[in-house]
Amino acid sequence: MVVKLNSEVLEELSDFLIQLKLEDFAEFSPVLKTSSIGQHIRHILELYECLLTQYEFGIVCYDDRKRDKMLETDVNQAIAKIKGIQSSIQCPDKEILLKMSAGSDFETIRSSYFRELWYNLEHCIHHQAIIKIACNSLAYISLPASFGVAKSTIDYVKSLESSNN
């Protein structure tokens, strides 16, 4: 289930990027002021990339990101990266050590691949919500109602609607 949900939210991201004009992707958003939509996309994708490239070693450190400028300035690179992530996300669950920076020291905690996939899903949705705000001024963009909304919120709203009928 977690693999399918991640693939779906990444597909929403890809569908969004196909609509987006290059200047609205790469330049600082007038709404966000200090960042671009592309920077948010890069950040999302690089966390997935960390999980997938470090999976085999069993130690994941999200601080070890590439911070690839091409992913935030070239929408086609970002779309290609999404497709690559979607094609390689189907890995068996296993224990993973999560390595985190704590100032000048590092801390490690136990996690699992599926738990980190869930984290990446929620992280992606969180950034989609920020991107959605930036898109309010872009009349040509069409986003699904689920874009930037947690799956638990979608399920909750559906349960309220069905109980009112």
UniProtKB/TrEMBL annotation:
Q: Which domain of life is it from?
A: Bacteria
**Protein name per Swiss-Prot or TrEMBL:** DinB family protein
